[in-house]
Amino acid sequence: MAPRKIVLASSSPRRKSLLEHIGLDFQTDKCDCAEHLDEKLAPRMLARRLSREKALSVAYKHKNSIIISADTFIEFKGKILGKPHTAPAAEKMLGLLSGNTHKVITGFTVLDTANNKMVSKSVATLVSFRKLDPKQIKAYVKSKEPLDKAGAYGIQGLGALLVSKIEGDYYNVIGLPIGKLAEVLQEFGVDVWKRYHA
């Protein structure tokens, strides 16, 4: 049997970088499905569902492959916050999160297109923000970093300056809980440690 290729169903440079960081050999395929943040679903269930939709949307193009997909958003006071698309939306989001604690939720899916085996998981991390003044928020938004990120910040960039505390998986906040993902990949016969075994 030919070795299965691994496909990341995402155009996120951060997710791509995390998979490269752990030494996976993979290719990317952008998912074109629209994200509907259905607030009637429990947040972790919604994250898993969105990640499944992404995996299934590219699966038909990749026979005998392992598809990895993920979706990340913020839950704050019962509301789901996705990615802001304008500077005013980013400022509003950051104003809400300022001085408060929110939950970063990532759902991810691993799908084997050879046998249709699919596993979806979700991980939640608590992140507390410092109290930000309006000038800091405007300066951060001016950097353009917030515009393609859930919750309007990137913890691995300038957004680190906004954070006072984190409880849980740091990589989950970036967009992919790679420790939990590695456990699931093992179930699919993908050993991220393989190249280091004697």
In round numbers, the mean pLDDT is: 93
What's the total number of strands?
7
Note the main sheet: 7 strands, mixed
Straight-line N-to-C gap: 24 Å
CATH class category label: Alpha Beta
CATH topology: Maf protein
In total, how many domains does the architecture comprise? Answer: 1
- Any idea what the radius of gyration is? 17 Å
> Which CATH architecture?
Alpha-Beta Complex
The percent of residues in helical segments reads 25-40%
Number of helices: 6
Q: What proportion strand?
A: 25-35%
Low-confidence stretches: none
Structural account:
The protein is of the alpha/beta class and 198 residues long. 31% of the residues lie in helices and 26% in strands. It is built from 6 helices and 7 strands, in the order E-H-E-H-E-E-H-E-E-H-E-H-H. Strands 1, 2, 3, 4, 5, 6 and 7 form a 7-stranded mixed β-sheet that branches. The chain has one domain: Maf protein, CATH 3.90.950. The mean pLDDT is 93.
